[in-house]
Write a structure and sequence with these properties.
Number of helices: 13
Distance between the termini: 71 Å
Low-confidence stretches: 1-38
Order of helices and strands: HHHHHHHHEHHEHHH
Mean pLDDT: 83
Largest sheet: 2 strands, antiparallel
Bound molecules: heme C
Strand content: under 5%
Shape: elongated
Radius of gyration: 33 Å
Length: about 350
């Protein structure tokens, strides 16, 4: 499509030159009426934003992009209901001396020309733009490269060429990605498996709009694994499950180390977001041999050869007795029983 747009004028110019050539070869032919158009071959149309900012700011743009327009997306009025249009904020594009629309869309002189190819002369911030993702994001980062985004270039979204505007809607009174109830749907557009995970029986209440992905992740990138919001996985969990942090008299080593040794954060078909059910969960680390809870034959019953273990058989799962999986503060809680 772009190639044809660019080639169009060039081909026309060539055809005109050809016509001129024949006219010149025939003495006495009428002078070519189209001479001015053919005086120089038109250069192919080079996509690019302009070089000069409008002196009228948004007024220039609103001459065409006004409320009267029926075309979808053409009217841009909703931006005036957002923080970006807050004139009293000295850092906003619409503050005194600000570049207004052009602070995000680039210098508009070329685009504002009626004869310009509208889509090839402005930073549309949209996925079908002629500009690369870093070029599209650049104006945003000039204002927003702050503490929350200082890992942007290390994060997997930037590395995978995700643009700010792939998540953000700026010409809308409310930006769906910033609201708890609507955020996940924005993420699911690209993260389909996570949608399925959050439908499982045991899960964090994301699908009810009570929690959002950004409670655990920094979508702008972070120094942590999986762009977690906190420096470690456990610290991320502690922001809400503070009681699991301790301090505890009797810690359970894997809990202090990494919650994900037993839990999967998004969703599980087992209770309590577990990766496996006990006893298998526990037996990944604790040898089944030696602990009587695995004895499932008559010898373990009261009066049997191994009678002392009877109680363990009756209560099949480890957590029926070791209730304090996450550690204990009871003076006699060393075995996580109380
Ligand atoms: C002379 C009329 C006119 C003026 C003035 C004008 N535009 Fe446009 N603009 C258009 C047209 C026409 C389109 C193309 C709409 C389409 O094809 O969907 C467009 C499209 C756009 C797009 C979307 C491009 C895309 O790829 O989808 C942006 C962004 C834009 N204009 C921003 C601006 C800004 C910022 C200004 C002020 C500096 C401005 N416009 C001034 C006529 C104008
Ligand atoms: C803070 C940055 C920012 C400012 C300021 C801004 N825009 Fe945009 N604009 C965007 C982004 C990002 C998009 C991509 C779509 C979206 O976010 O809704 C966009 C999209 C557009 C589109 C294309 C809409 C479509 O759906 O095809 C037009 C036209 C446009 N802007 C015009 C303007 C005009 C006119 C102004 C000034 C009144 C303006 N913009 C101010 C960021 C901005
Ligand atoms: C000229 C500076 C400037 C530019 C350019 C700019 N912003 Fe902003 N942006 C601001 C200011 C100021 C605020 C208001 C909040 C604040 O003071 O930090 C804001 C707020 C926001 C918010 C929060 C809005 C809300 O509803 O709470 C988002 C999201 C955002 N900007 C994204 C972007 C994106 C994406 C771009 C590029 C398309 C962009 N900004 C370009 C200055 C800018
Ligand atoms: C993968 C989706 C995604 C991308 C890409 C993204 N954001 Fe955001 N952004 C969010 C979410 C989610 C929030 C709200 C939660 C939060 O504050 O972290 C947000 C909030 C914001 C805010 C308002 C609160 C704050 O952090 O100051 C600004 C400003 C912002 N983003 C700017 C940007 C800029 C600039 C870019 C591009 C460099 C960008 N975002 C790219 C998802 C995204
Ligand atoms: C436009 C597509 C797109 C959108 C929208 C999007 N992502 Fe991503 N995300 C990606 C790509 C591409 C990757 C890198 C490949 C991968 O790991 O799947 C990624 C990776 C991630 C990762 C893994 C990070 C890592 O370092 O391993 C997390 C976490 C993530 N995204 C969270 C989110 C959240 C939260 C949202 C919504 C606020 C979101 N994404 C929206 C495309 C997207
Ligand atoms: C309760 C916290 C929490 C919530 C809420 C959450 N995540 Fe995660 N997410 C994690 C953790 C922790 C990991 C890393 C898992 C690991 O390394 O074992 C992760 C990993 C990821 C990854 C990397 C691939 C993978 O599955 O391991 C993506 C992508 C992702 N999350 C997307 C999302 C999206 C999208 C949402 C919202 C719909 C979301 N997350 C909500 C905690 C959370
Ligand atoms: C933003 C707060 C928040 C963060 C961060 C958070 N959780 Fe939760 N968690 C909750 C809430 C709220 C519930 C209760 C859900 C319910 O009752 O439906 C919950 C429930 C749970 C449950 C029990 C689920 C069930 O089905 O009984 C487990 C296990 C859990 N979280 C583990 C984690 C882990 C591991 C992390 C870190 C990766 C984490 N949480 C991070 C808020 C959070
Ligand atoms: C050794 C495995 C294991 C590790 C590691 C672990 N948990 Fe659990 N967790 C469990 C089991 C098993 C349950 C099921 C309930 C029970 O029987 O105690 C559970 C239940 C939960 C619950 C829901 C019930 C409750 O006690 O509130 C939350 C919340 C929870 N875990 C959070 C965490 C957090 C946060 C971490 C990391 C600091 C963590 N877990 C580490 C095994 C583990
Ligand atoms: C990821 C490995 C791992 C998993 C899974 C695990 N544990 Fe542990 N557990 C340990 C380690 C390591 C210790 C500390 C051993 C030591 O100090 O000698 C420990 C200690 C214990 C102790 C105290 C032992 C003592 O001698 O004081 C009990 C009881 C225990 N775990 C029960 C469980 C139960 C019940 C489960 C399943 C819900 C479980 N563990 C899952 C690694 C694990
Ligand atoms: C019927 C209750 C019961 C069940 C079920 C049970 N345990 Fe125990 N467990 C105990 C008691 C009581 C002790 C303490 C024995 C002592 O102090 O000498 C103990 C001790 C332990 C110890 C410490 C090492 C030791 O032998 O003293 C570990 C590790 C342990 N159990 C793991 C498990 C695992 C893993 C499971 C599930 C496969 C499990 N337990 C099931 C009651 C139970």
């Amino acid at each position: 499509m772009k190639i044809w747009n660019a080639m169009g004028p060039a081909l026309l110019a060539l055809a005109a030159l050809g016509a001129l050539g024949t006219a010149a070869a025939q003495p006495g032919a009428a002078p070519a009426a189209s001479a001015p158009a053919a005086s120089a071959p038109a250069a192919p149309y080079v996509p690019g934003t302009g070089t000069k900012y409008s002196t009228q700011g948004a007024d220039t743009c609103l001459e065409c992009h006004d409320d009267e327009s029926d075309a979808p997306g053409f009217s841009t009025a909703a931006i005036f209901k957002t923080p970006h249009a807050e004139r009293s904020n000295p850092r906003s594009p619409f503050a005194k001396g600000g570049l207004q629309c052009e602070s995000c869309h680039g210098p508009g002189d070329r685009h504002s020309d009626k004869n310009a190819k509208a889509k090839l002369t402005t930073n549309s911030q949209k996925a079908d733009s002629f500009l690369s993702v870093p070029q599209r994001n650049e104006p945003c980062l000039t204002c927003h490269q702050d503490a929350k985004r200082n890992a942007w270039h290390a994060g997997s979204h930037d590395r995978n060429r995700v643009a700010c505007a792939d998540c953000h809607r700026l010409h809308a009174e409310r930006d769906p990605v910033q609201a708890k109830a609507t955020q996940a749907d924005v993420c699911y557009r690209c993260h389909a498996p996570q949608r399925a995970e959050f439908q499982k029986a045991s899960t964090h209440p994301v699908r009810f709009g009570l929690m959002s992905c950004s409670d655990c992740h920094n979508a702008h990138g972070s120094g942590s694994t999986a762009s977690l919001a906190r420096p470690t996985l456990n610290q991320t969990c502690f922001t809400c499950h503070a009681e699991k942090r301790g301090p505890l008299l009797w810690e359970h080593a894997p809990v202090a180390e990494d919650c994900a040794l037993c839990h999967t954060p998004h969703g599980s078909v087992r209770q309590a977001l577990l990766t496996k059910n006990p006893p298998l969960l526990c037996q990944q680390c604790h040898s089944p041999a030696g602990h009587p809870s695995v004895a499932r034959n008559g010898t373990a019953l009261p009066g049997g050869a191994n009678g002392g273990a009877a109680a363990f058989v009756v209560a099949g799962s480890c957590t029926n007795c070791h209730t304090q999986t996450h550690g204990s503060n009871h003076p006699a809680g060393a075995k996580l029983l109380r």
